[in-house]
Structures are given as structure tokens and as C-alpha cells.
Amino acid sequence: MSLVNLSATWVHICSIHGLATRSRSPPSKFFPPLKEKPISCSSLTPRTRPISRSPFSISAILTKQDTLKDENTPESQSPAFNFKAYMVDKANSVNKALDDAVSLRDPLTIHESMRYSLLAGGKRVRPVLCIAACELVGGHPAAAVPAACAVEMIHTMSLMHDDLPCMDNDDLRRGKPTNHKVFGEDVAVLAGDALLAFSFEHIATATRGVSSDRIVRVIGELAKSIGAEGLVAGQVVDISSEGISEVGLEHLEFIHRHKTAALLEGSVVLGAILGGGSDDEVEKLRKFARCIGLLFQVVDDILDVTKSSKELGKTAGKDLVADKVTYPKLIGIEKSREFAEELNKEAKDQLSGFDPEKAAPLIALANYIAYREN
Question: What are the alphabetically sorted keywords of the record (predicted)?
Fold first, then answer.
């Protein structure tokens, strides 16, 4: 069984780099309360039956036999959803829009730094989620492209800052030297700041065919997802938790729901709002996104200890070196994989009331996140 190879399009492989030590604030024993009931993985038991799928489940994993079946499908039947073609098409659209939005101009250095990381590749999962959610609720994909670009700008900013010596001190990102290794720490910080600021400007000025109240709502959702109640909250609790032995599952879930899942959730919710989705549709998609957001990080934790830096396009094993708490560290690799399966199923269950054909991209994206290899 082989993964549909999306990474060949986006990730360039580079040599393995070492992980240096870093200087930061001393760890604290801050254990934030969860505002929501955590997604429990304590009741996981070995499976004795196949994982149930929704009636329109589309897998991002294909065997040779599956491929042959698709090729032999009678013309009278609906053709199988082509996930790879969909991802390539949407990613190409996003890449062009990003290239156009962040052009080279004065001051040259800052724009070169912004473009270096923004256009370095990547799977473009967040912007594609945004566009797919817009399409699912009946919106035109063009309405979501500025927001899709904005979430990718913010995601890139978070990686640039995360790689700095005061944070994760990483030398490798998307198969290339990290931004501060090329442009220096000062420019890397400022380039990340510039991408963050421009992301909101881009939504406000480039979105077409959407009411002003929905655009304002989108800007509010995005700001919340990355601020002190979102991405930043997860990042600071993650930093404060290093070296603390008594971190439990609820604490770990808080970190991942905020540090990783919040922006993924925001990507989907933004698309649903821009596409004209009802409040009920937006909330269903929010629940879907929360599951795949946590799923993304569980899989990341597994890959960090099972893949090489060459396979990942970033430094492998850095969580272990930094003594970070992860799902494999707390419950083991096999239980982590089972938890990932449960999250994938729960996510796709949220899409059961939508049109199967329109939901196919999001289902396939959930499977891709669950079964990716980098």
C-alpha cells in the first residue's frame, strides 16, 4: 500500500541537520484548564473489526488493485474522486496567488525573505481546506482564495518564528535551510511579522463577491485562531511544558488543539463563512476541523519518531531531544495510531449530512492527513 505522492510536488529533500540547544525562559508548571471536554484516547483498545467508513469515504491511500478497479469502472457509474489532481490544481492556484500577492519590491531584503519561506513549497493543506469548505457549502472557490493565501502566510510566519534559536532552533524547513540561516534572525523575525500583518490586509482588500459582514467575521475568526486563545496559547504552553514529567493527556491535547489545530480549524471555518454557509453548517465543519487538527498533530508526533529528516524534509527526532511530551511518549506508537484512526472517523462523521460529491475533497484530505508519510 503506497501513499499518493503529493510531497514530490512540494517538498525538496535536503541533508540532515543537527539540533542545537536553545536559550529560553525556565519551564513553568502552568497547566491550563480545558474549556471543552477533551477527545479521550484512554479507552482505546485493539481493534477486532474494520474501521467503519462513511458511505462516501474517499481514501487518500490507494493500492494497485484499487487503481485497477477505478480504471475498470463502467462509464455509467460516477468516476472516483481524483484527490491528487484536486490537490495539485488547488495548490497551483494558491501558489500563483501567493506569488502575485507577495511580489519583489522595496525594501528588497524583507520581500526576498518573505518569499523565500512562503514559496518554498509545502503541502498547502490549510489553504486547500479553506477552498474545499467554501465549495462544500455552495460558494465559488475564488471567494476563498484570499483567505486561503492568508492562512498560508500565517502558517509560514509561525514556522519562521518557530525555527528561531529562541524557539525550536531548527536549521531545516521544507527541505531547505531555515529563513534565519539565510537572512539572519533579525530579518526572519521582521519578515514573519510582515506576513502576519499582510495576511489580514489581503483578506480585507482582495476578497470579492462576499458581503462585508462576512469578511469582518472571517477576520475575527482568523485573529482568534492565532492569538493568545489560539496558536500562541498552544506555543507558550508547549514551551513551558518542556522537561515536566507529570504532563498528562489533557494537557497535551490543550497544546495541540491550540498550537496546531486552531489554524486548521480557522482555515475550514473561514472557507465555510466565505462560501455562504449557515450557522449549522459552519459549526459542523468546525467540529470536523477540530478533529483533523488534532489528528494532524498526532500523526506529526508519530512521524517525528518513525521517519528520518530526509523523509520529512525537516529535522526528525527534535521533540525527543527537547524532551517534549508527545502522544507516542505518553501512550506508545500503536495506541497513538489507533487514536489517529478514531479522530479520522469522528471527523468524517461530521460530513455525513452534506452532499457526498462536494464532501469528497474534505474526506480525502482527512485521509491524507491521517496516512501521510511526511
Answer: Isoprene biosynthesis, Magnesium, Metal-binding, Transferase
The CATH number of whichever domain residue 212 belongs to comes to 1.10.600.10
How far, in Å, CA of 140 to CA of 241, rounded?
Answer: 43
Can you tell me the distance from the alpha carbon of 85 to that of 104, in angstroms, rounded to the nearest whole number? 30
Task: Decide if 279 is inside a domain.
Answer: yes
In a domain, 49, yes or no: no
Segment among 193-197, 245-249, 344-348, 356-360 with least mean pLDDT: 245-249
Assigned C-alpha cell, 128: 486547500
DSSP code at position 174: T
pLDDT tens-digit profile of 344-369?
999 999 999 999 999 999 999 999 99
DSSP state of 164: S
Tell me, yes or no, whether 96 lies in a domain: yes
Contacts of 6 (CB under 8 A, 6+ apart): 84, 87, 88, 123, 368
For 295, the domain range is 83-371
Q: What does the pLDDT read at residue 312?
A: 58
CA-closest candidate to residue 358, choices 280, 273, 283, 272: 272
CB 137 within 8 A of CB 276: yes
SS3 173: strand
